[in-house]
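Example: YbaN family protein.
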Amino acid sequence: MKRHFYLVAGWASLGLGAIGAFLPLLPTVPFVILAAFCFANSSPRLEAWLLNHPHFGHHIVAWREKGAISRKGKVAATVAFAASIVLAAILSPWPWVMVPVIAAAVTGSWIWTRPEG
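Written out as C-alpha coordinates, the predicted fold is:
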Protein backbone atom coordinates (compact mmCIF):
# COMPACT_ATOMS: atom_id res chain seq x y z
CA MET A 1 0.00 0.00 0.00
CA LYS A 2 2.80 2.44 0.95
CA ARG A 3 4.66 1.63 -2.28
CA HIS A 4 1.57 2.41 -4.33
CA PHE A 5 1.09 5.74 -2.54
CA TYR A 6 4.68 6.77 -3.35
CA LEU A 7 4.28 5.62 -6.95
CA VAL A 8 1.12 7.69 -7.44
CA ALA A 9 2.67 10.67 -5.65
CA GLY A 10 5.77 10.37 -7.84
CA TRP A 11 3.75 10.40 -11.04
CA ALA A 12 1.64 13.31 -9.77
CA SER A 13 4.78 15.28 -8.91
CA LEU A 14 6.28 14.49 -12.29
CA GLY A 15 3.05 15.63 -13.95
CA LEU A 16 3.10 18.92 -12.04
CA GLY A 17 6.74 19.36 -13.00
CA ALA A 18 5.85 18.81 -16.66
CA ILE A 19 3.10 21.43 -16.41
CA GLY A 20 5.60 23.75 -14.74
CA ALA A 21 7.85 23.51 -17.79
CA PHE A 22 5.20 25.47 -19.68
CA LEU A 23 3.70 27.66 -16.94
CA PRO A 24 6.14 30.31 -15.72
CA LEU A 25 4.87 30.50 -12.14
CA LEU A 26 4.90 26.75 -11.43
CA PRO A 27 8.39 25.40 -10.63
CA THR A 28 9.60 22.31 -12.47
CA VAL A 29 12.73 21.11 -10.69
CA PRO A 30 11.31 20.93 -7.13
CA PHE A 31 8.52 18.68 -8.40
CA VAL A 32 11.02 16.49 -10.25
CA ILE A 33 13.14 16.23 -7.08
CA LEU A 34 10.00 15.26 -5.14
CA ALA A 35 9.18 12.68 -7.83
CA ALA A 36 12.69 11.21 -7.47
CA PHE A 37 12.15 10.92 -3.71
CA CYS A 38 8.81 9.19 -4.24
CA PHE A 39 10.23 6.85 -6.88
CA ALA A 40 13.15 6.00 -4.56
CA ASN A 41 10.51 4.59 -2.21
CA SER A 42 8.46 2.84 -4.88
CA SER A 43 10.29 2.15 -8.15
CA PRO A 44 14.09 1.95 -8.40
CA ARG A 45 13.77 1.81 -12.19
CA LEU A 46 11.91 5.15 -12.37
CA GLU A 47 14.30 6.70 -9.84
CA ALA A 48 17.27 5.63 -11.98
CA TRP A 49 15.57 7.06 -15.06
CA LEU A 50 15.22 10.46 -13.34
CA LEU A 51 18.77 10.39 -11.96
CA ASN A 52 20.11 9.72 -15.46
CA HIS A 53 17.85 12.26 -17.16
CA PRO A 54 19.94 14.76 -19.17
CA HIS A 55 18.02 17.84 -17.98
CA PHE A 56 16.98 16.99 -14.42
CA GLY A 57 19.46 14.38 -13.21
CA HIS A 58 22.17 16.83 -12.16
CA HIS A 59 19.65 18.94 -10.20
CA ILE A 60 18.47 15.88 -8.27
CA VAL A 61 22.01 14.70 -7.53
CA ALA A 62 23.12 18.20 -6.46
CA TRP A 63 20.13 18.48 -4.12
CA ARG A 64 20.69 15.03 -2.60
CA GLU A 65 24.44 15.43 -2.11
CA LYS A 66 24.73 19.07 -1.02
CA GLY A 67 21.25 20.55 -0.76
CA ALA A 68 22.40 22.72 -3.65
CA ILE A 69 20.34 24.86 -6.01
CA SER A 70 21.96 26.20 -9.18
CA ARG A 71 22.40 29.94 -9.71
CA LYS A 72 20.11 29.68 -12.73
CA GLY A 73 17.44 28.06 -10.56
CA LYS A 74 17.76 30.75 -7.91
CA VAL A 75 17.41 33.50 -10.51
CA ALA A 76 14.41 31.75 -12.11
CA ALA A 77 12.72 31.46 -8.73
CA THR A 78 13.36 35.13 -8.00
CA VAL A 79 11.90 36.16 -11.36
CA ALA A 80 8.83 33.98 -10.72
CA PHE A 81 8.41 35.56 -7.28
CA ALA A 82 8.66 39.04 -8.81
CA ALA A 83 6.04 38.16 -11.44
CA SER A 84 3.74 36.83 -8.71
CA ILE A 85 4.12 40.02 -6.71
CA VAL A 86 3.37 42.20 -9.74
CA LEU A 87 0.34 40.08 -10.61
CA ALA A 88 -0.92 40.26 -7.02
CA ALA A 89 -0.39 44.03 -6.95
CA ILE A 90 -2.56 44.35 -10.04
CA LEU A 91 -5.29 41.86 -9.14
CA SER A 92 -5.49 41.60 -5.35
CA PRO A 93 -6.91 43.99 -2.78
CA TRP A 94 -5.11 44.98 0.38
CA PRO A 95 -4.01 43.04 2.54
CA TRP A 96 -4.02 40.02 0.19
CA VAL A 97 -1.41 41.67 -1.97
CA MET A 98 1.05 41.02 0.87
CA VAL A 99 0.71 37.23 0.70
CA PRO A 100 3.07 36.76 -2.29
CA VAL A 101 5.41 39.43 -0.91
CA ILE A 102 5.77 37.55 2.37
CA ALA A 103 6.00 34.16 0.63
CA ALA A 104 8.69 35.50 -1.72
CA ALA A 105 10.66 37.03 1.14
CA VAL A 106 10.61 33.87 3.24
CA THR A 107 11.09 31.33 0.47
CA GLY A 108 13.48 33.48 -1.54
CA SER A 109 15.67 34.03 1.51
CA TRP A 110 15.85 30.30 2.07
CA ILE A 111 16.61 29.58 -1.60
CA TRP A 112 19.46 32.08 -1.73
CA THR A 113 21.07 30.56 1.40
CA ARG A 114 21.38 27.15 -0.28
CA PRO A 115 24.77 26.27 -1.73
CA GLU A 116 25.21 26.37 -5.50
CA GLY A 117 25.93 23.04 -7.13
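The first helix runs from residue 2 to 20.
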